[in-house]
């Protein structure tokens, strides 16, 4: 054992004497430590504040271990990289822990190539209703909204922590689309999957995972970062069980959900040369489940926080909603065109919620440039979406919650170019359409029926965000009040209609 330890120490020392070399004409940045790079110099609680580029400009470099990465700040450079030079910046890292977990399969971590393209196209067309069986995306979302309403009914007049409810609701909407079923809010199957996802995310962002990222020589060792792989395998096992159940109950050519559509696709392309297969399917399902849960539920929680603490905004939304939906049981996504103020409020809540601040990391697919700098192929690129969402000069009120950011002089809804919470270009969020529909239908239905108030014993509202890959607001309690007799009437009508 002693000689093994000595050998490792020797290797580590050797690495310490290797100087980190910056490629020629590479963007400037803080001096990296040998082996460790710059990661340990970042604030672990809020790394975003160190990535603002005040010191090095809107394009600067930092080292993840001994590998260089480039941070892009502000609309101009983010757009140049992701939109103008989309194909050159559309890769994903292949050397990080998350790359090793997904092994390049599925969509989110798949490299730019035919498998990614086939799966992205398949998922987009399937979600846009070309194969979700009898029930559209909108109907499935409205069904979940009715369950949220029922749940909130029991807190009416009091307060509740909305974290669990919104998380389960977002996860149910994705489950309904991909697995054809939603789960009761106390169902053990879904609670276990969510718990696994939470544990996995926590470990994947923990100190051992960081060590895995920055010291590649440690990777083969049986250190605690193996837990992340173990947890990931457990989630995959869970998905595989659902797949097996589906295979037994499906009728080919009559899809009930995205999983059935995928199985049909495998049948259609069984004669070889296709990128569709069982392993890809499991990764795709896991991708959609992971990407579609935290993101939407954190945004909803932020939106509620801002609405509760801005009663005048909430009341104006309520008036607009009541007017447009008068006499009808449900809202529809089409109604957004008649609700400029509500649209502005939801977009503003999304801007302030800043849910995926550093996007998903990209890599350069060929040697390329940005401003006057050269980036070699394979450079990790970090688009700082947060910097764009709060960029001075792009917004009337960059640092405060104000729906006026999305309204013109005559009160029409306008979307500034710097509204990039879903990123941009060829890797733009695949779930953007779904997420926008969810946010609209959930918030419009809830604001129509309830007034949300900051509870008297809620302390001082805290708008700071917790960073953990995605950002989320700190836990808070949501005060729920049913609006007027008309509110009662509509809720009954609504719950009856959705049975
Ligand atoms: C990718 C944001 C909801 C599925 C992304 C990216 C961002 C993002 C910033 C990275 C884009 C890039 O690499 O440049 C959000 C936000 C959401 C949301 C803010 C909610 C408010 C969803 C939902 C789904 C989803 C509901 C499920 C269908 C995906 C997938 C990708 C992705 C599959 C990878 C796309 C690719 O690599 O080609 N999302 N997302 N997202 N998102 Fe979302």
Report on this model:
It contains 16 helices and eleven strands. It is of the alpha+beta class. A four-stranded mixed beta sheet has the order 1-2-7-4. A three-stranded antiparallel beta sheet has the order 3-11-8. Strands 5-6 form a two-stranded antiparallel sheet. Strand 9 and strand 10 form a beta hairpin. Protoporphyrin IX containing FE binds next to helix 11 and helix 15. It is found in: Membrane.
What does the average pLDDT come to?
A: 89
The helix fraction, in percent, is 40-55%
State the shape.
globular
SS strand fraction: 5-15%
- Provide a count of the helices: 16
Task: Give a summary of the structure in a few sentences.
It is found in: Membrane. The chain is of the alpha+beta class and 499 residues long.
Topology:
Layout: H1 2-16, E1 59-64, E2 67-73, H2 75-84, H3 97-102, H4 114-127, H5 137-153, E3 159-160, H6 163-179, H7 188-204, H8 207-214, H9 226-249, H10 258-268, H11 278-308, H12 311-324, H13 340-353, E4 362-363, E5 368-370, E6 373-375, E7 380-384, H14 385-389, H15 432-449, E8 450-453, E9 465-468, E10 470-473, E11 478-482, H16 484-497
Helix pairs in contact: 5-6, 5-15, 6-11, 7-9, 9-11, 11-13, 11-15
The protein binds protoporphyrin IX containing FE.
Cofactor: heme
Keywords: Heme, Iron, Membrane, Metal-binding, Monooxygenase, Oxidoreductase, Signal
InterPro entries: Cyt_P450, Cyt_P450_CS, Cyt_P450_E_grp-I, Cyt_P450_sf, Cytochrome_P450_fam2
């Amino acid at each position: 054992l002693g000689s093994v330890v000595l050998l490792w120490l020797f290797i580590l020392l050797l690495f310490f004497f290797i100087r980190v070399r910056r490629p020629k004409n590479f963007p400037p940045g803080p001096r990296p430590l040998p082996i460790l790079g710059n990661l340990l110099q970042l604030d672990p609680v809020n790394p975003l504040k160190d990535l603002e580029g005040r010191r090095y400009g809107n394009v600067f470099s930092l080292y993840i271990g001994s590998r260089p990465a480039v941070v892009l700040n502000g609309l101009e450079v983010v757009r140049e990289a992701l939109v103008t030079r989309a194909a050159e910046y559309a890769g994903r890292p292949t050397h990080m822990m998350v790359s090793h977990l997904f092994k390049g399969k599925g969509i989110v971590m798949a490299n730019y190539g035919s498998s990614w393209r086939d799966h992205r196209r398949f998922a987009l067309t399937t979600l846009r209703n070309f194969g979700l069986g009898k029930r559209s995306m909108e109907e499935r979302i409205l069904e979940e909204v009715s369950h949220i309403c029922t749940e909130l009914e029991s807190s009416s007049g009091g307060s509740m922590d909305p974290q669990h409810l919104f998380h389960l609701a977002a996860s149910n909407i994705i489950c309904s689309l991909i697995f054809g079923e939603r789960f009761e809010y106390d169902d053990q199957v879904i609670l276990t999957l969510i718990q696994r996802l939470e544990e996995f995310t926590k470990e994947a962002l923990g100190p051992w995972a960081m060590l895995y990222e920055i010291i590649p020589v440690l990777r083969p060792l049986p250190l605690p970062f193996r837990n992340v792989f173990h947890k990931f395998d457990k989630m995959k096992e869970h998905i595989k069980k659902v797949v097996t159940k589906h295979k037994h109950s499906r009728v080919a050519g009559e899809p009930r959900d995205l999983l059935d559509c995928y199985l049909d696709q495998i049948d259609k392309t069984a004669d070889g040369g296709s990128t569709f297969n069982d392993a890809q399917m499991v990764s795709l399902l896991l991708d959609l489940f992971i990407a579609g849960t935290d993101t939407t539920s954190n945004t909803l929680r932020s939106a509620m926080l801002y609405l509760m603490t801005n009663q005048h905004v909430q009341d104006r939304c309520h008036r607009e909603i009541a007017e447009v939906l008068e006499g009808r049981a449900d809202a529809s996504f089409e109604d957004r065109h008649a609700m400029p103020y509500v649209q502005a409020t939801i977009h503003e809540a999304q801007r302030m919620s800043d849910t995926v601040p550093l996007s998903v990391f990209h890599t350069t697919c060929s040697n390329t440039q940005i401003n006057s700098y050269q980036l070699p192929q394979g450079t990790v690129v970090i688009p700082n979406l947060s910097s764009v969402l709060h960029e001075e000069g792009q917004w009337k009120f960059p640092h405060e919650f104000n729906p006026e950011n999305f309204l013109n002089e005559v009160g029409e809804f306008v979307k500034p170019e710097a509204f990039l919470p879903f990123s941009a270009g060829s890797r733009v969020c695949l779930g953007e359409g779904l997420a926008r529909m969810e946010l609209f239908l959930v918030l419009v239905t809830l604001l129509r029926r309830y007034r949300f108030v900051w509870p008297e014993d809620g302390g001082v509202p805290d708008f700071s965000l917790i960073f953990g890959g995605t950002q989320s607001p700190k836990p808070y309690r949501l005060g729920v009040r049913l609006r007027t007799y008309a509110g009662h009437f509509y809720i009954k009508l609504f719950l009856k209609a959705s049975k």
